[in-house]
Sequence to fold (696 residues):
Amino acid sequence: MKTKILALSLLILMTLGSLYSQPAESSLSTDSLTLMPWPQEIEVEPGFQIIDTDFRLAISIVGGETKAGAGSRLENASTRFLRYLTDKTGTFLKAGYPVSGQVEGATLLIEIEEKAVLELGNDESYELDVLANKISLKARTDIGALRGLSTLKQLISVQNGAFGFPQVKIKDNPRFPWRGLMLDVSRHFMPVDVVKRNLDAMAFVKLNVLHWHLSDDQGFRVEVKNLPNLHERASDGMYYTQDQIRDIVTYADERGIRVVPEFDVPGHATAILTAYPEYASNLNLRYSLERNAGIFDPTLDPTNEEVYSFLDTLFKEVTPLFPDAYFHIGGDENEGKHWDENSQIQRFMAENEIPDNHELQTYFNIRLEKILSKYGKKLMGWEEIMTPNMPKSALIHSWRGVNEGMEPGESLIKAVKSGYHTILSNGYYIDLMLSVEDHYQVDPMPEHELTQEEQSRILGGEATMWSELVTPLTIDTRIWPRTAAIAERFWSARDIKDLDDMHRRLMATSQKLEGLGIRHIQVREYLLRNIANYKDTGALSDLVKISEPLKIYTRNSGGTQYQVYSPFTLFADVCTPDAVDVIPFEKEVTAYVETANESDPVALKEYLGKWATIYERLLQIEQDAPLVGPVLPYAKRVRDVSTLLLEGLDEGKLRKKDFVVIQDLLQEKDDPRQNLDVELAVKDGILDLATFLSDK
Ligand code: ACM
Fold:
């Protein structure tokens, strides 16, 4: 029976020749597609629509005008689509703008039913039908059409030497309504253009929330006219004017991206207290902007009524800048040291029967919730705000995990079981410098018994880009391309999880992101040129391919090796997680070990031979490039390991003594600076090879 079903399925598959929803299951033709996020339903036909100069785009609002009003979200997105298409393919379009009133002759017809007001839960679904000479994109809302346009941009490919669109039929909608990226602009300020280009990239991979972390110990980044000390004294002059904020919020809205601001209180408040020290829990300190990384003690005084007047003034002025319903008040990592040390606060707690600091913070949060609701906002905060007395209207942002002594998903499950809506960031901390695979394998929906209703309270997730170790120059290299894979986790079906296929599509997506202005590739090349002082970067580049920045905050452990004004143009800043030579090298090692060196390991020797020359090549430029000097000891160890292994491969075995030397050379040094704050990412492959050769 089973065989019959299998045979029948095969027959159907062969007849249709094209129907599947998962790239991993079939490589018939989806292996030529590099969409990310992968759509919910996709059929691929053999045809290909070539892009030529007659390509015309028209918009129709069903039952309404034939053309969306000038300046509308969809019309502007359509114009950007045409620009992207033109630049990507070099085609001189006769109609470089959406054509009006010419729906019949359009190559691409976009049909929508309504223009949406951007909010949580917008209908983002769309249907895309690419035929030989016509493309139909249908969506209920303009937001859905925008998502479809992103898909269409990603579909541009080459067949038989020509640019075009493969024939596909797509039905798509997101798995989760909240798909965010958090940008910390406090630790390092990110100018408007950085935010904008990242919004473009977010839209490209269908992320729909910019969570803007605007205040922390290291800086307050918003102009507040009624509390001018905030931007004048607590930002080093690096803040967004209100016009700039409005500009960015509009820019995001045009891309179907909500903006949720975060003003972190009562902890992470050094900047606020630098501006207004009278609201501190410790009134004896002189506050100044924090220059190190870490968790600090300055905290607002929740027992001081004037603190609430201050926050009311702040929220009254800033809430109109952010039309979204949600407003993030932070609330994380307040250890309450200054509360413990303040006798007046202790007396207040005793008089009001507030048993501990956590409940004192709840008292504070509930006061804030009332202020925010006066201004039409829903309160959102990091998971520490969740206490029995917190109103269920609050949105809980789950972030803590094993590093903080929590079970994965612990607070997420607790939140939904207690009746809160929640989003997940634990597992998506891209500043931990972990491999994309680590993030991709985390699902916002935990493997845990949850009712339908509880599941529906999990709204999605956010990647978090904390900026202690990034600058406007390097931030793109930390966000992209990994965040594209996280975006897929938030949008696509749970069973889209084949790692090889993810890597294949991620590599293509990474390249496409350059076309949107993302600088993750070019900046690393520039940084190499800077280290090499414009001499030959080849050796450094070879070393970067096998090196990754230290992970899980072991770079800058203690928070004082780097201050906010330290150089972030060092070797470690060029390196990224997922160093490109790691997977191919490990595959070669596995193949060699499994075939017990029956054939000459040409590829392995090529890798090791290349690595063995890095040190000598660096010596040739060192005199003219002072930044190369610190790289030399690490490069020398790489040379020594590679040379010993090459000899081992030539002889077919490794002496025990040499194996010990290799192990020794691979030891991480106690002082991370000796390792340039990087780790040798091919270490496991090298050890496997060395072990195999020494066992013989
Ligand atoms: C956090 O990472 N402190 C929310």
Observations:
- The pocket of acetamide is lined by residues 332-333, 382, 399 (CB under 6 Å).
